Amino acid sequence: MRTIFAINCVAFALLCSVYSNNSFAEPQVKKAEISKKQAVELAKKNEDGKTLKITDQNDIYTVRILKNDGHVVDVHVNKKTGKVKKD
Predict the structure, then answer these.
(1) Three-state secondary-structure class, residue 65
(2) 13-43 burial, b if ≥16 CB within 10 A, otherwise e?
(3) Are residues 68 and 55 in contact, defined by beta-carbon separation less than 8 angstroms?
(4) Which of 20, 35, 66, 79 has its Cβ near the most Cβ atoms within 10 Å?
(5) Whole-model pTM?
(6) What phi and psi values does residue 58 have, to the nearest 5 degrees?
(7) What is the pLDDT of residue 14?
(8) Number of C-beta neighbours around residue 65 at 10 A
(9) CB burial class (10 A; 0-12, 13-18, 19+) of residue 46?
(10) 3-state class of 19 per DSSP?
């Protein structure tokens, strides 16, 4: 009797494991947002110079860069996609 109970417990545990890893389960993969440091790296790939300031807005980081010729440029980096746009 105890053996049957133990086998049932193992079978139940295996079924729970299969269903939790099943493709019917909700996908819980969420892509992490880009960090401020990553945003600065992406911005500096497009514009060479010294980083003056980074501003965290809704869906973008604005990275202010002082270029070697003295001009100041704002570069916008999308937090979710990493897409870079120059202002």
Answers:
(1) strand
(2) eeeeeeeeeeeeeeeeeeeeebeeeebbebb
(3) no
(4) 79
(5) 0.63
(6) -50, -70
(7) 54
(8) 22
(9) middle
(10) helix
Contact predicate 61/67, CB 8 Å:
no
pLDDT at 23: 47
Tokens of 40: 């600065």
Per-residue pLDDT of the chain (87 residues; tens, 9 = 90+): 556 654 655 556 555 555 555 445 445 556 789 999 999 999 999 999 999 999 999 999 999 999 999 999 999 999 999 999 987
23 φ/ψ angles, rounded to the nearest 5 degrees:
-70, -10
Query: Helix, strand, coil proportions of the chain in percent (round to 5)?
Result: 35, 30, 40
Please provide the size of the chain in residues.
Answer: 87
CA angle 11, 14, 19 (to 5 degrees): 125
Write out the two tokens for 81: 């996609």
